[in-house]
Amino acid sequence: MGYSQFGRPYKEPRPVELPPANVIYLSDLLRRMITVDIQRFSTHLAAIYSNIAKPVLDVILYNYQLSQNVGAEGILLLTFGVQASAALRESLPKSQ
């Protein structure tokens, strides 16, 4: 048994003894924790994709298809109309 730099005797760490019925090796526990973390990450990544990427792709495809059918001028007029109606609605007093 040696001494540490603080003057207390250094004790070797001893293994923790678990009851034989409940023995879970540390590597198995870590492997399970990593597996659960990867599963949660994958689930959240899929949710982000479906909540953000799909709607953006839908808007892009909708605008492309609309421009093919109506033309770029139609899209500009439609956008201007939506913006003007939104501005008009914001300027009106709120009804109760």
Descriptive notes:
Helix 1 crosses helix 2 (72-91). It is built from 2 helices and no strands. The chain has a domain at 25-83. Helix content is 67%, strand content 0%. The N and C termini lie far apart (82 Å). The chain is mainly alpha-helical and 96 residues long.
Topology, element by element:
Layout: H1 26-69, H2 72-91
Helix pairs in contact: 1-2
Give short descriptive properties of this protein.
single chain; mainly alpha; 2 helices
Give the structure's gist in a few sentences:
The chain has 96 residues and is mainly α. The protein has two helices and no strands. The chain starts with 25 loop residues before the first helix and ends in a 5-residue tail after the last helix.
Estimate the strand proportion.
under 5%
Mean pLDDT: 80
Into which percent range does the helicity of residues fall?
Answer: 55-70%
Number of helices: 2
> Would you report the number of β strands?
0
- Secondary-structure element order, N to C: HH
Shape from CA axes?
Answer: elongated
Provide the structure class.
Answer: mainly alpha
Largest sheet: none
Q: Termini distance?
A: 82 Å
State the low-pLDDT regions, or none: none
Taking Cα atoms only, what radius of gyration do you get, to the nearest Å? 32 Å
